[in-house]
Design brief:
Oligomer: heterodimer
Distance between the termini of chain A: 56 Å
CATH superfamily of the domain at 18-65 and 103-114 and 138-151 and 204-292 and 469-490 in chain B: FAD/NAD(P)-binding domain
Number of helices of chain B: 14
Shape of chain B: globular
Distance between the termini of chain B: 52 Å
Radius of gyration of chain A: 17 Å
CATH class of the domain at 18-65 and 103-114 and 138-151 and 204-292 and 469-490 in chain B: Alpha Beta
CATH topology of the domain at 18-65 and 103-114 and 138-151 and 204-292 and 469-490 in chain B: FAD/NAD(P)-binding domain
Structural class of chain B: alpha/beta
Number of strands of chain B: 24
Shape of chain A: globular
Chain lengths: 166, 536
């Protein structure tokens, strides 16, 4: 079974690991990487994990959607090779069997905050470096997108740059 | 609204030869005396000196031409616009985040202005181990003086901000010597946003000094121009192939620029310079090209104080300590330089480990947080041989850098040192940046916890803002692909003029080392290309 083989290669940790799941998702189209635009499942993933990563300040659906939008913008600013790696990660996690095997989670929209927290904590400290790096990618994309927004600054006591020059 | 004079806008209005290659609608061929790949510390200095000597110079820059009017002090805009890979460039294993500029002026446009001469122990090691007999304190002194004058490098008369002063206070209470950092600024407003491009043009980066000077003398600047390959014919580079990038600098547009020149200077910075030479198939009989690339792997410690620290405000780096370099022999256990980083929300939030309520709680104390950095001096010991620049399947370079047990030992000592200094400065709690670290309320508690933290990639936070090496110069070809005069061995018309020349890390922020050493190399090259007197 393709998914099982890809799963085993993924957790095996080697250089091909993320590429394996991604190849399944992307199909073997061409060697030159292309831009990665979040699809529906990518939005669902981020919509689920963003509030768990950011914490109590992020609950309003409109705020979550704004963070997801900024994550898409951040991804668009990454090199194509990195965009392809993220596409592989998101693609793998969109496949229900792979997601269950790797994360134990049901569909993203059905996962409870406690389940999501367990998943993130598991990957954060996972013995496979590949999964720790995948966690850090989600951490940096989501938290960076939240704290880049001036709306988040009041809560942390950051006044923002000098108004006269900004 | 204060009107800030924008020298870039003025130069463009005056008719500088600048082409944004994103706008090209046809391929182009350009002839020049010298083409310089990169507009950062090495490329900028080289461009000015060669243009002053009357040579026709073309400067090739992968980033865009941005200026003070674009520098709005917002991380979300600055990182994608001004940094390699949106400030998220990483080592191959993703374990080390690398800050490097990608804009006209390169890293000098976004660095924190810290200016140190190359430490004498580093030069002594280069002389002894790498046969760089002309790289002495005495022979380099006039070049340091020249570049310090050119870039207004001087002591900073304003008191340090609290973030820096806490390093001074804590170290002082422990009997650890600190010093004041000299800065390349002229009329600095003490804002604290150097890392997002200086909004007042006070920072004397290449963007406002050498590059405008070269353009005033008729040089051509190509932006959004990625140097793909030097096409070699025998022992010469015949031409440079350039891919035009789209407006956001991500994908090639399909148009190309070909530059034919008498001489080619590679100054794209460590990682990109070896990358270009690897793609070009440059001679490398000893497999040294891309090897021994160094990072000053940097550990971070965050402390919470009762009083405001406001690490976002004021000159970002003004105090340092070399105590843990000076008290250890360079070839002994790895030493480290202590400095502080400016703290801004996006960079701090991504650097802080953890998530959810605990992360939010740490961020809530943002304005009372003091940050400290320890930069490990790699490259002086067999236990820190550096990484290797490799090419990805699409030809782009990436750095494979493994933290060794030797470096992890230094990482742990560095986290201990920083926590001890932060508590000595009065911290309420100290957080070593590590996935299993947390806020510790006393030095005793922190000491026991840090001693037990597992040191491993993607658990311990490691960052780098100083990439060096990969095209090392050395007296003998077995030790480096570049000769002491900056010429690439085996090619008669290719030089390397940037931080990739260094055979070890510098052991200090590298910008002034790059300025002075490439000024000397460029003066020699100018003499050779114009038939005049050359540097011996």
């Amino acid at each position: 079974m393709t998914t099982r083989r890809n799963f085993l290669r993924f957790v095996g940790g080697g250089a091909i690991a993320l590429a394996a799941g991604g190849a399944l998702y992307r199909g073997l189209q061409q060697s030159a990487p292309r831009r990665f635009n979040l699809d529906k499942s990518g939005h669902e993933l981020l919509t689920a994990v963003a509030p768990v990563l950011v914490g109590p300040a992020l609950t309003a659906p409109a705020d979550i959607a704004a963070v997801v939008g900024r994550v898409q913008t951040a991804i668009a600013g990454l090199p194509l090779a990195t965009q392809a790696e993220l596409q592989d990660l998101f693609g793998l996690l969109a496949l229900a069997p792979a997601r269950r095997l790797l994360t134990g989670l049901p569909a993203w929209r059905d996962a409870t905050p406690a389940q999501l927290q367990t998943f993130l904590q598991d990957w954060r400290l996972h013995r496979f470096q590949k999964l720790r790096s995948a966690y850090q990618a989600l951490h940096d994309l989501v938290l960076g997108s939240w704290y880049a927004d001036p709306a988040s600054w009041g809560a942390i006591g950051y006044p923002g740059p000098m108004q006269e020059l900004a | 609204m204060t009107a800030i004079a924008d020298p870039i806008a003025a130069g463009l209005a005056a008719g500088w030869h600048v082409t944004d290659c994103a706008t090209l609608t046809a391929d182009r061929v350009i002839e020049a005396d010298v083409v310089i790949v990169g507009s950062g510390a090495g490329g900028g200095v080289t461009a000015e000196i060669l243009a002053q000597s009357g040579l026709k110079v073309v400067i090739v820059e992968e980033g865009a031409l941005k200026s003070s009017r674009d520098f709005r002090m917002r991380e979300a805009e600055a990182y994608p616009a001004l940094y390699q890979e949106s400030a998220a460039r990483k080592t191959k294993d993703k374990a080390i985040n690398i800050l490097q500029g990608r804009t006209v002026g390169g890293s000098t446009t976004v660095n924190w202005t810290s200016s140190f001469r190359t430490p004498p122990v580093t030069l002594a090691h280069w002389q002894r181990r790498y046969g760089l007999t002309t790289y002495t304190v005495e022979s380099l002194a006039p070049w340091f003086e020249q570049m310090e004058a050119r870039l207004h490098i001087a002591g900073w008369p304003t008191p340090p901000n609290a973030n820096n002063d806490l390093l001074r206070q804590g170290a002082s209470r422990l009997g650890i010597a600190t010093g004041a950092i000299r800065r390349n600024v002229n009329g600095c407003w003490n804002l604290g946003y150097c890392g997002m491009g200086c909004p007042t043009n006070a920072k004397q980066s290449m963007l406002v000094t050498t590059i405008p000077s070269a353009l005033d003398r008729g040089a051509t600047l190509l932006t959004r121009a990625r140097a793909e390959r030097l096409v070699l014919r025998g022992d010469r580079a015949d031409h440079l192939m350039i891919a035009a990038l789209d407006a956001d600098g991500i994908a090639p547009t399909g148009h190309t620029v070909t530059v034919r020149a008498r001489h080619y200077v590679v100054a794209g910075g460590a990682i990109n310079s070896p990358g270009l030479l690897l793609r070009s198939g440059a001679p490398d009989p000893n497999r040294l090209l891309g090897a021994r690339t160094f990072l000053h792997p940097t550990l971070v410690s965050a402390a919470r104080f009762a009083q405001p620290v406001e690490g976002y405000a004021g000159a970002p780096q003004t105090i340092y300590s070399d105590h843990f370099l000076d008290t250890l022999p360079p070839d002994g256990p790895v030493g480290y330089k202590l400095e502080v980083p400016p703290l801004h929300p996006l960079l701090l939030s991504t650097t802080l480990a953890g998530f959810g309520a605990a992360h939010a709680e740490a961020m809530r104390h943002f304005a009372r947080t003091q940050g400290m950095l320890a930069l490990l001096r790699d490259g002086f010991h067999d236990g820190a041989p550096g990484g290797r620049v490799l090419l990805r399947a699409d030809g782009t370079p990436e750095l494979d850098y493994a933290m060794t047990n030797y470096l992890w030992d230094g990482a742990r000592r560095a986290l201990l040192t920083m926590a001890e200094i932060q508590f000595a400065a009065g911290a309420e709690a100290v957080l070593p940046l590590h996935e299993t670290g947390r806020h510790y309320a006393s030095w005793n508690e922190a000491q026991a916890a840090i001693a037990a933290l597992p040191m491993a990639p993607l658990l311990t936070r490691v960052a780098s803002a100083h990439v060096m090496g990969g095209c090392a110069m050395a007296g003998h070809e077995r030790d480096g692909v570049v000769a002491p005069d900056g010429r690439y061995r085996g090619l008669t018309n290719v030089s390397v003029h940037d931080g990739s020349l260094f055979p070890t890390s510098i052991g200090a922020n590298p910008q002034l080392s790059i300025y002075a050493i490439t000024a000397r190399l460029a003066s020699g090259l100018a003499g050779q290309l114009t038939g005049g007197k050359s540097y011996g």
